[in-house]
Amino acid sequence: MQIFEYNGSAVVAMVGKNCFAIASDRRLGVQLQTIATDFQRISKIHDRVFIGLSGLATDVQTLYQRLVFRHKLYQLREERDMKPETFASLVSAILYEKRFGPYLCQPVIAGLGEDDKPFICTMDSIGAKELAKDFVVSGTASESLYGACEAMYKPDMEAEELFETISQALLSSVDRDCLSGWGGHVYVVTPTEIKERILKGRMD
Amino acid sequence: MSEVPPKGGFSFDLCKRNDMLIQKGLKAPSFLKTGTTIVGLIFKDGVILGADTRATEGPIVADKNCEKIHYMAPNIYCCGAGTAADTEAVTDMVSSQLRLHRYQTGRDSRVITALTLLKKHLFSYQGHVSAALVLGGVDITGPHLHTIYPHGSTDTLPFATMGSGSLAAMSVFEAKYKEGLTRDEGIKLVAEAICSGIFNDLGSGSNVDICVITKGNKEYLRNYMEPNPRTYVSSKGYSFTKKTEVLRTKITPLMERVEITEVGEAMEE
Asked: A142: domain range?
C-alpha cells in the first residue's frame, strides 16, 4: 500500500482576482477505516498566508507545528508577518533538509502578497517548489483534481464565483476517490476578510 | 530535543522511521522529476542553453510551465534534469557559494569554478542527489559548456544534451551543428532540438525556454516558443447547475493595515 494512501487526503488552491481560495476534504482514515470526519488539513500561518498539508497525518501535524514555530521566531525578529514567497522558500528548505528521510506530506501554500496579489504554490515531499498562476492540487485525489480544475478554472474570478468553482472541483474529485471526502472545508481570502465554509458532501 | 535551526546540510533523523514503514509494506513516495530535454551549444560569440518546461510526477504532468534554466552567476546559467528538488537545491547552493567567492576575490565567476563546486557536491553524495546538469557560461577565458552527471563525472563539449529527450535532441545537433554559428542560427538550432524532444519524448513537453550568454551580456528568453497552446478552451466557461450546499460559514474580517507616515523633523545625529 502506498504511504500517501495510508490516511487519504485532497487539497486544492486556486487564484482569483485579488483573492485566493484553498480547500480540503475532512476525512481522516487508517487505510480503509474512517476514524474522523473533521480533520483539519488547512491551517492559518497568519492572516494572509494559509498552508494545506496532505499525506501522512502525523507528519502533517508535526510539520505544521514546526512551521508555526519558525514563523513566530521570524515575527519576533522582523516585527512583521512573512510574505507568502518567503514562507514557501522556508517550507522548501525544511523539507529538503530531510531529503534522504523525508516528511511524508505534500504542502499547498496560498497567500496574499504585496499589493494583494494572490500567490499559490505546491511542493513534493522533498521541497521541489511548483509555482502556478491558476491552481495547484495535492493528495490521493490529485489526478481527478487536476482534471476537474483544468476544466472548471477561469482566470480572474471574483470571490463568490471562485468559491463555487473550487467547491465543485473538490467535491466532484473526492467523489471519485475512496480515501478522501466526507465533506469539504473551504477558505476564501480577500484583502478585507477570510470566509471559512464547511461543505456538505457525500458521507461515503 | 532543541529546536534551534540547524547549521546546514542534510538531517537523517526520520530515516529509521521511514525504513520501518517501508518494511511494513508501505511504498516510498515518488518525487517531482523533470523528465526533460535540456541542451547547450557554443556559437560564435558565446553559449546558448535551451530547455523544455514540463515537470512530471510519475505519469502525471504536475507543472506545465516550470523553469529549468537556473541562474548561477550573471554570466553563468545551468539547466537541470532529474529530481526537481535536487536540481533546484544544488544550483541555488552553488549560486550562493559563487556569489560569496565573487565578493572575496573581486572578480567575475568562472565556469570552471561552478563546475568544480557542483561535481564535488554530487560525487560526495555518490549519485543519491539525482541532478543531471548542463552548465554554460562566458567568462574571461571564453565560452564554456559542460555536462555534469549525478555521480559527479563531467564532460566538456561544443554541444550537449541531457535528460530523457537527450537522444531526440542529439540527433538534431549531430545532423545540423557546425562551428562558428551566428546567434540566430544557434537559437534556431536549439529551438529545433528542444522541439524534437517535446514532440518525441513523453517526459518533455509544453514550451521552449532559451538563454543566450555572450561576453558581458545575457538574454533569458522565457517561453521563446509555445508550440502547444490550449486551443480547446470554450469561451462560455463552465456553468454549474446545482450550487454547493454549505453547512456553516464563518467570516473573519481582517484588520485594516496601518500605514505609518513619518511626520515631523528627523532626529538629530
From this structure: 3-199
